[in-house]
Design brief:
Number of domains of chain B: 1
Strand order of the largest sheet of chain B: 4-3-2-1-10-13-9-8
Strand content of chain A: under 5%
Low-confidence stretches of chain B: none
Radius of gyration of chain B: 19 Å
Number of helices of chain B: 11
Strand content of chain B: 15-25%
Helix content of chain B: 25-40%
Largest sheet of chain A: none
Largest sheet of chain B: 8 strands, mixed
Order of helices and strands of chain B: EHEHHEHEEEEHEHHEHEEEHHEH
Helix content of chain A: over 70%
Oligomer: heterodimer
Shape of chain B: globular
Distance between the termini of chain A: 28 Å
């Protein structure tokens, strides 16, 4: 049944996400346990700052998106027939939905970016090989 | 069967072949350059990362294919910091292992190649720290410093740069990724690879060829994600048989730049409003004009996008992370056997020997 794909695929992706989160947590604990030198601390701070900058850039773009939408939605320019009115109202809702969808995707993307990069960094710090198994 | 009128012709050349590309075309340039280094005298990499960098973090997901997708996106394109970018040292080792397994040509071939590597300082799609690892990667593989031209101080967004005033502003990061910067990047690339060239032609007298790519792909069309047609430009003097071509230069477009690219809106192809990019990478990036006066044939292979096929490649990118591989546990997208690399190499052999 095609709909089962939604359950199976989503389950697989969530499982992979959970495994990554678990692995990151375990590796972090190990890193703290063995003690961090100044260089490691600096790199961690640098990563945190980079993540914060990305989030701030996203927020600025979101504000621009909503300002543009508000500008479009505040008037019904040129809607002088029933069909044009329906189209214009539809556009307003459609644009809002698209902005929400795009912002949610951006946010999930940034979260994934941070999790993958942190996981990569911490496993490198612990000297764990990232090349051993391809299966 | 391919249409006989759309077959790629053959020309006698001096076999001084080269390759360049932007973005996914640049990542693919590095792969093709390494896979078939015996064929090439140089390469141009515009906003591209090092060989097999998508494999940097196998622990990103249980399946190799998924881990490589995540690695491509977040380590090879948008690493948070240079410390989370790919490791040139590791990837150079991986390249040596791949060559030892005879999956690519011997790396000694790279020693006399000439390289042009570029990253715009305003690039928000492929971070400059990644492109810097491409430079380091080639250095580690023995390409001498004098053969490399590395540029990272032009305030360009993610794009190939032209002298067309109607192209996008230089600092933008948006399709069609062809930006106006008051110079022809394609000319700089070819001049660096081949040395002093004749000035570009103001008028073209050669022949554009459209050919069927299917015959070069084999049976793997569902995975190949390649368009029905590819293109080539044959400079006038070569087309008329007056001179022998110096070689073939392969120009690899980036994502959303193939002639058949259609934007997907909410997962559906927006056929009614196709973006006006069409064949712009083929006819407005300046390759043909410099080729016309310098006996160079330009080959433009074409990738295509699809959101619902085996390849899952809606933006029509070249494969540098494994989508074209049938075996998800061990994706082969980087060797001579990879479907796209093998197809393009067959085109090169047919066109220029």
């Amino acid at each position: 049944m095609p709909m089962s794909d939604h359950v199976i695929k989503a389950g697989e992706i969530h499982r992979a996400w959970a495994l990554r989160a678990f692995s990151n947590a375990a590796n972090t604990a190990q890193l703290f346990a063995q003690g961090m030198d100044q260089k490691t601390r600096d790199e961690l701070v640098h990563m945190g700052e980079a993540a914060w900058t990305r989030l701030r850039t996203l927020r600025e773009n979101w504000i621009k998106d909503w300002a543009g939408w508000l500008d479009y939605a505040s008037e019904l320019k040129g809607a002088n027939t029933m069909s044009k009115l329906a189209e214009r109202e539809g556009n307003i809702f459609g644009q809002a939905a698209q902005i929400l969808c795009s912002q949610a995707t951006d946010l999930v993307g940034l979260q994934e970016n941070i999790a993958v990069d942190y996981g990569y960094w911490v496993s490198e710090k612990l000297g764990k090989s990232n090349w051993v198994s391809r299966s | 069967m391919p249409d006989a009128d759309l077959q790629l012709p053959s020309f006698e050349t001096e076999k001084q072949h080269s390759i360049s590309g932007l973005s996914s075309g640049a990542f693919m340039t590095v792969q093709l350059h390494l896979a078939h280094s015996a064929c090439f005298v140089g390469a141009g990499v515009v906003a591209g990362g090092p060989y097999r960098c998508a494999e940097s973090f196998r622990g990103a997901a249980p399946d190799a294919e998924d881990a490589f997708s995540l690695g491509a996106l977040y380590i090879c394109m948008t690493p948070l910091t240079p410390r989370t970018a790919p490791s040139a040292l590791r990837l150079a080792g991986l390249a040596r292992d791949t060559a030892s397994a005879n999956l690519i040509d011997p790396l000694e071939n790279l020693a006399d190649d000439r390289l042009y590597i570029f990253t715009g300082s305003e690039d928000k799609v492929v971070d400059s720290s990644v492109v810097k690892t491409t430079l380091e990667f080639y250095r580690l593989l023995g390409v001498p410093e004098k053969n490399i031209r590395f540029i990272n101080d032009v305030p360009a967004g993610h794009s190939i740069i032209t002298d067309n005033v109607t192209d996008s502003p230089l600092a933008t990061n948006q399709p069609p990724y062809i930006n106006y910067g008051r110079f022809w990047q394609s000319h700089d690339i070819l001049e660096h690879i081949y040395g002093d060239l004749n000035p570009p032609a103001s008028m073209l007298s050669g022949r554009f060829i459209r050919f069927e790519q299917r015959g070069f792909i084999g049976d793997e069309t569902a995975y190949a994600s390649m368009a029905p047609y590819g293109y080539a430009y044959i400079p006038g003097p070569v087309a008329r048989g007056e001179v022998k071509a110096r070689g073939v230069h392969i120009a690899m477009h980036g994502c959303k730049q193939g002639y058949s690219y259609v934007n997907y809106v909410l997962g559906k192809p927006d056929i009614a409003n196709q973006p006006p990019y069409g064949a712009r990478y083929i006819n407005s990036t300046g390759y043909n004009e410099i080729a016309e006066t310098n006996r160079l044939i330009i080959l433009y292979p074409q990738a295509t996008g699809d959101d619902d096929n085996e390849a899952q490649n809606p933006d029509g990118c070249w494969d540098w992370w494994g989508y074209s591989a049938k075996n998800q546990k061990n994706p082969d997208y980087y060797s001579k056997n990879a479907v796209q690399i093998a197809a393009i190499h067959r085109m090169l052999k047919r066109l220029g020997g």
